[in-house]
From TrEMBL:
Protein name listed in UniProt: AB hydrolase-1 domain-containing protein
Ranges for domain AB hydrolase-1: 74-320
Pfam (any one): Abhydrolase_1
SUPFAM superfamilies: alpha/beta-Hydrolases (SSF53474)
């Protein structure tokens, strides 16, 4: 949730500063037969110490104390989106927030273009696209990097792929984080008249301008879209950015777009998937926007219940890796640090509550939080405008 002018400035820059952390990039052919373009970011989070009297610099000095093994993250993007769309979140990692204990951590973050988009292969048959096949792509990329295990983070369709990856090879997962995700199939169809109307209008207008208008409305909350920055609505600036990007880089090829749609439509989380994920013993976290018109948060509730996962609701729409990048980065860094230090016991509810409470207490942007997530019972669909004391959540869930 954005609150200050400096927040809007960083938001509109869309993570450009993150490119300084790219350690390597390239294209690799994975065992599934496609070529994947990937980028590997290395982010070093070190202890901040005050300069001594002899130092003339005004700013603090960041120095490493004791090296620890790298924390590896494979981050899987969503429908019609490239790996570089993770940049706003990676930039927040680079800022090494002061609200989280960051002593001497090195993050190795791999982002990549899924098959069907960007610089990766674009198979023509729709049958070449499924969340199982695309999960195998990601596992092949992990093999190429020499990663036996990683924290797996997925957004939207990428969350579906991440879920399949975790069920296919649970022994390779440290933790699983699913952002703006549903169970696939009919759940990807907008069910409200507002969302359906926007979707149909976007389908009818295939121009770059029409696509930009639709995407911005789906991706960002009304509060963000209608906020003012330098005398203009944020919505106008975002629409210009989206339209310019389409004009510069071109639209996704029809085969790729159709393939991604096919993967989402045919995706499901089976009973066997749930059992396999739970057998891995790793913690699972779902993060979702309360104003998401693309993936309604009731579907995230259902999936969280099935997986026995934590669920955090943020004040944002669908594309919260950009709109709520600050909150997500804080939450992820705290959460994975907690797992590193305490093992992978996903039942430590008090630990999770402390993480979220600390995040809310330290952030002037997280304006609402549910009462103690350990004592409240269930989220109400109409609760987003209610006082947080009146909200009800599942144990271990919380709402910003």
């Amino acid at each position: 949730m954005l609150a200050k002018e400096k927040d809007f400035k960083a938001f509109l820059e869309n993570g450009k500063a993150s490119t300084t952390a790219v350690d390597s990039c390239g294209t690799v052919r994975v065992p599934t037969g496609v070529e994947l373009f990937y980028q590997l970011y290395v982010v070093r989070l070190c202890s901040m110490v005050q300069p001594d009297a002899s130092n003339q610099m005004d700013s603090p000095i960041w120095t490493p104390l004791h090296a620890r093994r790298p924390e590896r993250y494979i981050m899987i993007m969503g429908f019609a989106a490239k790996g570089e769309d993770w940049q706003p979140l990676i930039e927040q990692f680079l800022r090494a927030s002061k609200t989280v204990a960051q002593n001497d951590r090195t993050l190795e973050i791999c982002v990549f273009d899924n098959r069907g988009i960007g610089k990766s292969s674009v198979p023509k048959p729709k049958t070449a696209y499924s969340t199982e096949i695309m999960a195998a792509d990601a596992l092949g990329l992990m093999d190429h990097l020499g990663w036996s295990k990683a924290h797996v983070v997925g957004f939207s369709m990428g969350g579906m792929i991440a879920c399949k990856l975790a069920s296919m090879q649970p022994h390779r997962v440290f933790s699983l984080c699913l952002i703006s995700v549903t169970g696939g199939g009919w759940q990807i169809i907008p069910s409200t008249s507002k969302a359906l109307g926007t979707f149909l209008k976007g389908m009818m207008d295939r121009s770059n301008r029409g696509r930009a208008l639709t995407d911005v409305k789906f991706h960002f909350s009304s509060a963000t879209r209608h906020a003012m920055y330098e005398g203009r609505e944020i919505r106008e600036i975002l629409e210009e950015q989206y339209e310019a990007s389409s004009a510069q880089y071109g639209r996704q090829l029809p085969e790729g777009e159709g393939g991604h749609a096919h993967a989402c439509w045919t995706h499901s989380v089976t009973v066997e998937d749930v059992r396999s994920i739970q057998s891995g013993g790793f913690p699972v976290l779902l993060i979702h926007g309360r104003e998401d018109l693309v993936a309604e948060y009731r579907h995230a509730e259902t999936l969280a219940l099935r997986l026995g996962a934590r669920l955090v609701l943020l004040h944002g729409a669908h594309f919260i890796p950009r709109e709520c990048s600050f909150e997500i980065s804080e939450l992820l860094l705290s959460w994975t640090s907690s797992q590193e230090l305490q093992g992978t016991d996903g039942d430590d509810k008090s630990s999770f509550a402390k993480i979220v409470t600390g995040l809310v207490a330290s952030s002037d942007r997280a304006s609402k939080v549910a009462l103690d997530p350990l004592i409240v019972n269930r989220i109400r669909r109409d609760s987003k405008d209610r006082d947080p004391v009146g909200q009800r959540c599942m144990p271990g869930w919380c709402c910003f």
